[in-house]
Write a structure and sequence with these properties.
CATH class of the largest domain: Alpha Beta
Number of helices: 15
Number of strands: 8
Structural class: alpha/beta
Strand order of the largest sheet: 1-2-4-3-5-6-7-8
CATH superfamily of the largest domain: Alpha/Beta hydrolase fold, catalytic domain
Helix content: 25-40%
Order of helices and strands: EEEHEHHEHEHHHHHHHHHEEHH
Strand content: 5-15%
Number of domains: 2
Largest sheet: 8 strands, mixed
CATH architecture of the largest domain: 3-Layer(aba) Sandwich
CATH topology of the largest domain: Rossmann fold
Shape: globular
Length: 453
Amino acid sequence: MRGIIFLLLVTLCYSARFFPSVLQPQAIDFPVQFFNQTLDHFNPTDSRTFTQRYWVNDKHWSGGDAPIILYINGEGPVSGPPSASDDFVVTLADNLQATIVTLEHRYYGDSSPFDDLTVENLRYLTVEQALRDLENFVLSFREGLRVGDNANAEFKIFNIGVSYSGALSAWFRLKYPHVTEGSIASSGVVNAILEFDQFDAQIVSATGSACSTVLLKTMRQLESLISNNDTNLSTKSKFLADMLSDADFYLMMGDVTGELVQYGHQADLCTPLVTSNGIDLVEVLANITVNSWSGKFGMAYQYGQDHLKKTPHVVEWADRQWWWQTCTELAYFQVAPKQNSVRSSTVDIGYFRSLCSNVFGEGTWPNTKAFNNAYGGNQTAATKVFFSNGSQDPWKWASVTDSLGMLEPAVVISCDNCGHGVLIRGCPGGCSPSDKLNQEREKAMKYVQQWLL
C-alpha cells in the first residue's frame, strides 16, 4: 500500500499506451505534491488510504477570491500541470486569473494503491471511485486556500478534461453539481459503446478518397501476407511486432491508422501511401509504423495479451489498467465495420470478449447499457457543460456533437487536422483554417465566464 498527504487537479486523456515523459525531470516551477486519498469511498468500514500525486500552476492566480480550474487527468501518468502558453487551459487561467490544479488518476502513474495489479486489487478502479476522488480532493484543496484574509473566500471551481477525462469532466458535473460551477468536456467520450464501428468509418471519411482507397488496399495486402505461413513472421518483423499473435497484431494496426488520424497527423499516414509510386505499400506502412507511430503513440509489445496479464505496477505503464476499465465498464471496442474497413475483420466483438476473459478472468465484460443508464450516455442530464469535438476525430461519435440545451452547448470544430481534444490541445499538424479553432475557443471562454458569475 502506498501512502500520504495533500492535493490538486487537471485532466487530460491519452490514447497512447506508453508514457516516457514521466521519466523526465519535473519542472522546478511545479513540484509534485501528494494527497492522502481514501481507497474505497463507499465502504465506511474500510479505512485504507493511498497517495495520489498532484500539481499546482498558480502563475496566473491573482490571489483573493479568484477561481480554481480543476483539470482532470485520465488513463496515464502525469508529469505536471498545464503550463504551455498555447494550451487553452492556460489561456483560460490567464483570463480568469485562476489557479490550475491537477490530480493524477487512481491506479495510473505513481498514484496506484497497490504494487500488484491483480484482479482483486483492480476492483477499486471504477469511474464512481475516480469521481469521488476528485470531489474529496478538490474540496480539501479549496479548504487549504481559505486561510488568513481568504478565510471566507468562495474560490469557485471549474473543471476541464479531454477524452476519457473529458467524460469525467461531464460526469463530475452530473454527480457533484454542488462542487463545480461548470465544465468543459473536450472530446468527452460520455457514451460507453460496446461495438464502436463508427471509429473506423470516421477514419475512412477523415482521410479522404485518395488516401482511404490506398489504405484499404494496403490493409488487404497486409492481411494476405499475415495469412500466409511463409510470410507471416517476416511481415510482422517489419513492424517490430513479431511477438504478437495475428489478432493482437491487427488490433495494433487499427491503432496505427486510427491514432495518427485521431491526433491530426494524417499527413504522416496518407502522404507516403498516396505518393508511394510503385513502392510496396506494406513496406511503406511498416515504415510509417516504425518511424511515425511507434514510441510516439505506442509500442508493439503492449498489444500482447501476455504483457497485459503482467500484474506488477510500473509507473510508465497504463495498459492493464485501461483494459480493465474498458473490459468492466466503458468498452469503446473498436470493431471492424461491415464494409470499407481499414481494420481486419478479425477484430470483432468476439476478439474483445476473448481478450477480456483471457486477461482478467472468464466472464469479465462491461454492461454498457447499465453504465449509460447511470451516467446518461450522450443524453447526459449534466448542465453547464461545454462539449467540443474535432471534425476529423473518430471519437466524436462517442461524445455529444449536438447541443442538448442552452446549458449543454456542443460544437464541432471543422478544419483539416481538427482531431482529438482540439479545443484544448490545438492541432499538432496545424489547424487549417486556424480561425475555426479561435472562434470556438472564444465561444467556450464566454460560457466559462458566464457560468462563473
